[in-house]
Amino acid sequence: MTVREATSQAGRDVSFRGWLAQRRDHGGVMFLDIADSSGSVQVVVEAETSNGLYETAEAISHESCVEVNGRVVAGRAGNNEIVANDIRCISSARKPVLPYPRSKFDVFDEKHADHVLRNYHLYMRNPQLIAIMRFRSELMRIVRDWFYENDFIEFNAPILTPATLYEEDTALNIEVHGENIFLTQCAGFYLEAAAQALDRVFNMGPSFRGETSRSKRHMIEYWHIKAEMLHGSRNDIIDLVEAIVAHIVEQCQIGCADLIRAVGRGFCADGARIPYPRISYADAVDHLNRVKCQTNFGEGIGADAEGVLEDLLGGPYWIVGIPRSVEPFPYVIDPDDRRVTMVADLITSNRCGELLGVAEKISDPDMLCERMMEKGKWESPSYEFVKDVHQAGCAPHIAFGMGLERLIRWLLNLPHVRYATAFPRLVRRSIYP
Amino acid sequence: MTVREATSQAGRDVSFRGWLAQRRDHGGVMFLDIADSSGSVQVVVEAETSNGLYETAEAISHESCVEVNGRVVAGRAGNNEIVANDIRCISSARKPVLPYPRSKFDVFDEKHADHVLRNYHLYMRNPQLIAIMRFRSELMRIVRDWFYENDFIEFNAPILTPATLYEEDTALNIEVHGENIFLTQCAGFYLEAAAQALDRVFNMGPSFRGETSRSKRHMIEYWHIKAEMLHGSRNDIIDLVEAIVAHIVEQCQIGCADLIRAVGRGFCADGARIPYPRISYADAVDHLNRVKCQTNFGEGIGADAEGVLEDLLGGPYWIVGIPRSVEPFPYVIDPDDRRVTMVADLITSNRCGELLGVAEKISDPDMLCERMMEKGKWESPSYEFVKDVHQAGCAPHIAFGMGLERLIRWLLNLPHVRYATAFPRLVRRSIYP
Fold it and tell me: What CA–CA distance (Å, rounded) separates A229 from A243?
């Protein structure tokens, strides 16, 4: 029986297990908050009638796992509580960690961050972090169900790969059987081959970046939602992404209201307002320069500039036509403006920054050759299979890729992507626990 | 419109896209098999009435992506076929790969294995491999839905980890920010911490082994289905695994009949016969020695010995009580026979070998200390967080771990786990494509 189930049995005798989250000793009467994954309940022990139970309860350390037997009664605050007739310690907590993991403290407060990250194996018992993990699980289910309902096949691309999407020095490299290879930065090369067989595929799994950016939206290990489908244009993939994001927002509001409340930072429903405004990269650069946020054509748009554009357009919004200078090689060059690619980036609201990119991907082997030469990838034997796919009757295809933790951060209004996953792997931080 | 959809439109004019899988030129009449992910259809081109179309069709290379316009008619063999009035090449295949990926050859024949693995990016267009990939996607969905329906929360353990379950020399190691760490062999350490917060958790994601075994059931990268739950005994986790395996078998038979037929190697439904017979490790060793299959108490049971036991018991079957000498440290020692752990292994039928292990896991910090000392892990700072979890009111918990590719191999009767995934990563084989 869970704590929640026990609490609901008004008037009955119940037996349940949980952890000691808090104890308040009022001299003669003691209140214990016993918590599990379902919630928390107040257990009352009275010295006069307890027959030694008071002393037992007094000796239990915070976070010890206990079994409680008692009667469910109506408490003063209107919630049911438990009058204990027996408490047994199943597993005693020997080493206190402060603040107590299941106690009410602001887990997102910067002053706790290092301590929480260092002791994540214990702080995942915190109610706010439990709620985020449950939300993450529900969100993954919602996303996958959308893919299944729209005829996508789940495809697991390998993690170990010879072919990086970005520069090799931004990848994590590993030696296997004497070969120097990499952890995947992006499943795209494998998904485009898979789409040529399966038409519509998606991949949800870990990706790795060796970048040095210490921003609030980067981790070196994260979960990557990738999809690839045959035929269609950039507008088609923009429409598809708007449909999936709006669907996610709606489903979270329907199914995750309790979890959102438990996280306690509200919910961002901006993604439901489709279609999102679009601005071309060229117009964005013009606007930024007009308002003295200097940006040179061909450069990436930084976090400050994203904010300026959010003030102009509201969020989320699309930046359409990202320059070929900043994009890696797999994306089609815009025939109407050969300075830019057929890529669009979706920037979220509330200064959360980029969520995802969509693209028309190259199917023509000659265009592939041009772009691989431009990016210095043409001579590498690691990309032979990518060339093969493009020389073997490659159908035009479109794609998108989204960071799961960025999505969670945006929806739950978290101060950093590190709170969107358990055991986050961060730049220049020890891999521990 | 897919090929399958087009084929169903008897009497109508249709337009669809696909790849040229086969061409048979009978002089004056040509038959093209055009395939996509949904299937294949015969397209007829007659020289007399074709107005140049015959010559166009003649020039198209195998595996080129084409658009076909034509009328759907009843063919001689009873299947619908398409009489073409236009064929347009969308993307020409420039480099032939033989046998043609979408042609009918035995993709599982050992003589093709190296070639297929080297060109997997093209051979994933083979109908049998397409069927396996679709089956894998369906199977993952079935497994996850079972977990969700049984109140498990999906939890993503990190891939980058300081703590290996087995010996470090059987792990893939990687340097990140100057630290020597590892790719996860098993999510167990993180899942047991998560279970202390979330009660029931599962993890589906990649695991890595640096082992040198070149058997038909090992890869260095594979997908690992792991679950961990609070309270309960070894019998409870045995019951749970039998329930999930029987459920999987039943759901595959209901939902995947077409895919199983397309793979063409039958389906193994042995997993539906629950409960599975059990033999203690000690009895197994006695039996093996009686039939002259020499096995010393305390050693692992090899593939030949597994087969001898399958002949005795039928399969699948459980070996209960695996010796502490061969198991890593997290598992409870059997109080009735301290030579063995509270671990049981499930061995499949048809000589497919071990599928999974179940266990009662240690919650008592003193037993953890004893076992970590025994395995030489006690002094390592990488396991401090594991000790912390056990000293912080650790509730008893049970777990299982299953290789997804082993499950697929068993169910679909595949000759090697490498066919159960795209782009398999195999021992002593180049990481390519």
Answer: 15
- Preceding amide of A275 cis, omega within 30: yes
Q: In the structure, what pLDDT confidence band is assigned to residue B336 with cuts at 50, 70 and 90?
A: very high
Q: Which two tokens stand for residue A327?
A: 């994009």
- Give domain limits for chain A: 3-96, 121-420
Asked if the A121-420 domain carries CATH number 3.55.50.30, the reply is no
What's the average model confidence in pLDDT over A61-66? 97
d(C-alpha A327, C-alpha A299), whole Å: 10
Residues of A in contact with B137 (CB under 8 A): 153-155
pLDDT one-digit tens code per residue, B349-385: 999 999 999 999 999 999 999 999 999 999 999 999 9
pLDDT at B261: 97
DSSP characters for A152-192? -EE----SEES--SS-GGGS-EEEETTEEEEE-S-SHHHHH
Q: Which amino acid is at A181?
A: I
The pairing of strands A153-154 and A200-208 is parallel
Evaluate if residue A384 carries a pLDDT over 90: yes
CA distance B114 to A122: 48
Q: Which residues of B touch A183 (CB under 8 A)?
A: 159, 174
What is the model's pTM?
0.97
Measure A426 CA to nearest chain B CA, in Å.
10
Where does the pLDDT of residue B245 fall: very low under 50, low under 70, confident under 90, or very high at 90 and above?
A: very high
B179 CB neighbours in chain A (<8 A) are 430-431
The span from the CA of B55 to the CA of A255, in Å, is 59
Q: Which of A100, A153, A176, A426 best tests the B interface by mutation, with the highest count of B CBs <10 A?
A: A176
- Do residues B271 and B432 touch, judged by C-beta distance below 8 A? no
**Using one digit for the tens of pLDDT, what is the confidence trace for A187-197?**
999 999 999 99
Residue of A2, A94, A221 lying closest to B160 (CB–CB): A221
Contact check, Cβ <8 Å, A431/B2: no
Instruction: Out of A174, A193, A198, name the one closest to residue B121 (CB).
Output: A193
Residues of chain B neighbouring A385 (CB-CB closer than 8 A): 119-121, 432-433
Contact A179 B19 (CB under 8 A): no
Chain B residue at shortest CA distance from A424 = B158
Minimum Cα–Cα distance from B429: chain A residue: A177
Q: Is the complex ipTM more than 0.85?
A: yes
- Distance between alpha carbon A170 and the CA centroid of its chain, in Å? 21
* Answer CATH for B3-96 from 2.60.40.1180, 1.20.1530.20, 2.40.50.140, 3.30.830.10: 2.40.50.140
Q: How far is A12 from chain B (nearest CA, A)?
A: 23
Contact between A177 and B428 under an 8 Å Cβ cutoff? The reply is yes
The residue-averaged pLDDT of A264-293 equals 98
The pLDDT-based confidence of B211 (bands split at 50, 70, 90) is confident
